[in-house]
Amino acid sequence: MKRQDFYYDLPQELIAQEPLKDRSSSRLMCLDKVSGEIEHKHFYDIIDELKKGDCLILNDTKVIPARLYGEKKGTGGHIEFLLLHKRSLDEWEVILKPGKKAKPGAEFVFGNGELTAEVKEVVNDGNRIVKFKYDGVFEEVLDRLGEMPLPHYITKKLEDKDRYQTVYAKYSGSAAAPTAGLHFTKELMQKIEEKGIKIGYVTLHVGLGTFRPVKADDILDHKMHSEFYILPKETAELVNETKKNGGRVISVGTTATRTLETVGMQGGELKEQTGWTDIFIYPGKDFYVIDGLITNFHLPESTLIMLVSALAGRENILNAYNTAVAEKYRFFSFGDAMFIR
Questions:
Q1: 3-state secondary structure at position 278
Q2: Does residue 151 have a cis bond before it (omega within 30 degrees)?
C-alpha cells in the first residue's frame, strides 16, 4: 500500500482554527462501514445513534501546557521546548527548536529564571533529555509559563486553555488532545448514561508520534512511536460484559482505539494492563475489540486516516472525506466529527 493511496484534496479554509462555542453543536457525519452510506447530523444527535447495552470508551488523558519559550543562558538566544515524556522526577524528553543550540551541558532559562533546564543527553531523532530546576511544584510552574501545544495547522491563538481539553480529562501527560472527545459536554454524557449506555475510560498519553507524517512511500516502512497506556480493570470488565451481552463497544477517538486493540490482539477477554504501544493499524489489519468509532477528520496521508480506512474501507473513507469537503465540514482538531457505525 502506498502513502498516496490515502491522499485527498483539502482547501485550507476548511481547517478549523478555533472551537465552536458549544462543543456538541459540531456537525456529525454518520458513515456505515459496510455499505458506505452517509448521513449528516449534529454531534448532539449521537445519543440517537447509541443503543442501550452499548458502551463508550473514552481516553481520559489530560494535555499539559507543554510548549515553553525561553532563552539560552549566556547568549540570550531564543529557544522553544516541547515536552514529550517525563523520564523521572525532573527529567523530560523534549523537542527543541533550534536544536543546534542544545548540546549536553547547555542551559536555558524560562520566565525570568523561574524555571531553568540543562541538556543531559541527545536521544533518538535529535530529541533531548533535560533536567529542570525550579521552586515549588513543577505542574504549577508549567501552568504559569507553558502554552497549549496546538498543532502547527492552527495559527490562531487559543483564548481558553480548557477548550483544548475534554470535559472528562483527568490524568496529565499528553502533548496533544484526544480530539474526538472535545465534542462531548457533561450534559450530553449524562443523557447518554441515562439512556443505558455505560461509559468507561482508558488512558493513553498522546505523543507527537501519532501525528508525525508518513514519509515512506510504502506505508509498511513507517515506524510508529511508542505511547504509554493504561487499561483499568473496570474498563476491561465493562468491555467483556458488553461483548458477552451483544452490545457494541464504541471507541471515542483513535487513541482509545489503539489502546483497546493493543490489548485485544493478545487474544481472549480483556484484562487490566499497562504498557507502551506502537501499534499501527492500516487496511488489512483486524479489529478485535471495537465495533464503532467516533472520530474527527484527519490529515491526508496520515496514520490516522489509515486507521479509519482499516475500519470502514479506504474507498468508503475517501468518499466520505470528499463528501465532507463538498459539504464544507470543518477539519482536524477543532473540526467536526464522524461516527463510523
A1: coil
A2: no
Q: Which helix (H) or strand (E) holds 142?
A: helix 138-145
**Which triple of cell numbers denotes residue 165?**
481539553
The 292-296 sheet, strands edge to edge: 38-42, 27-31, 337-340, 292-296, 249-252, 55-59, 198-204, 227-231, 273-277
Grid cell 504501544 is found at 277
- Cα dihedral 262, 266, 272, 276 sign: negative
What is the Cα–Cα distance from 175 to 178, expressed in whole angstroms? 10
Comparing CA positions, the residue from 333, 330, 326, 281 lying closest to residue 38 is: 326
Q: Integer distance in angstroms from the first to the last C-alpha of the chain?
A: 25
Question: pLDDT tens digit string along 70-111?
Answer: 999 888 889 999 998 888 889 999 989 887 768 899 999 999
Q: Apex CA 237: angle with CA 232 and CA 238, to 5°?
A: 100
Contact 337, 296 (CB under 8 A): yes
Angle subtended by helix axes 314-326 and 303-312, to nearest 10? 110
92: β partners: 86, 130
User: What is the C-alpha to C-alpha distance for residues 40 and 323, in angstroms, rounded to an integer?
Assistant: 10
Q: Which three cell numbers stand for residue 173?
A: 501527560
Query: Could you write out the DSSP letters of every residue in 73-128?
Result: TTT--EEEEEEEEE-SSSEEEEEEESGGG--TT-EEEETTTTEEEEEEEE-GGG-E
Count other Cβ atoms within 10 Å, centred on residue 104: 12
Which amino acid is residue 46, in one-letter code?
I
223 to each of 216, 228, 254, 280, how far by Cα in Å?
9, 16, 17, 8
Q: Find, among 160, 182, 188, 153, the residue nearest to 169 by Cα.
A: 182
Question: What confidence tens digit (pLDDT) does each residue in 151-201 have?
Answer: 888 988 888 888 999 999 999 989 889 999 999 999 999 999 999 999 999
Rounded Cα–Cα distance for residues 112 and 299 (Å): 38
Angle (CA) 130-135-136 rounded to 5° is: 110
